[in-house]
Amino acid sequence: MKTLKILVGLALIIAVSAFAIDKVGVHNTNVDGYGIGDVANDFELKNVDGAMVSLADYKDAKGYIVIFTCNHCPYSVAYEDRINALDNMFKTKGYPVIAINPNNPKLYPEDSFDNMKVRAKEKGFTFPYIFDDGQKIYPQYGAKKTPHVYVLEKTKTGNVVRYIGAIDNNYKDAAAANEKYVEDAVNALLEGNKVPLEVTKAIGCSIKA
């Protein structure tokens, strides 16, 4: 009986320790996706122009602004012009936008690949708009909403997650947004500084899988 109590106690200590490490985000490997400091896997997904896109294609990139977004969600629609602006602002500085539609078109036909092509043309997207066919990539990242942003920094050890969350603090009105989380994060990285706010709450529609 005494031996059993000792074993139970040891099991609890191990479980608590593992939870603590996970919460700190040290090489987070939990099922909820990446944490700050984790190395993100590359992917190869089809763009609206028919070409396959991966992060490795961007040889001169310093990092990436990966945004999970879609056609039908009003939050995503509200941010389309701002996503274009982020790409125009940072692509030439080494941080291009890569937009990924994670939704299952069987549930939301508006988010089909054909409709993605139409939307990209209508809005004049300057960035790749790629389809997460089979919904395999967004769970790796842990994306929950559209839009949901992951800023990655290219390093010798891989593409390290430096920011996760929302684009800014006002989806309704771009002019009223006074906290520009993604912009601040990328500017900090370009200056060689730590991202001032690493995680924010993504506001948007739930991903339809």
From TrEMBL:
<dbReference type="InterPro" id="IPR013766">
    <property type="entry name" value="Thioredoxin_domain"/>
</dbReference>
<dbReference type="InterPro" id="IPR000866">
    <property type="entry name" value="AhpC/TSA"/>
</dbReference>
<keyword id="KW-0732">Signal</keyword>
<feature type="domain" description="Thioredoxin">
    <location>
        <begin position="34"/>
        <end position="191"/>
    </location>
</feature>
<protein>
    <submittedName>
        <fullName>Thioredoxin family protein</fullName>
    </submittedName>
</protein>
<feature type="signal peptide">
    <location>
        <begin position="1"/>
        <end position="20"/>
    </location>
</feature>
<dbReference type="Pfam" id="PF00578">
    <property type="entry name" value="AhpC-TSA"/>
</dbReference>
<dbReference type="InterPro" id="IPR047262">
    <property type="entry name" value="PRX-like1"/>
</dbReference>
<dbReference type="InterPro" id="IPR036249">
    <property type="entry name" value="Thioredoxin-like_sf"/>
</dbReference>
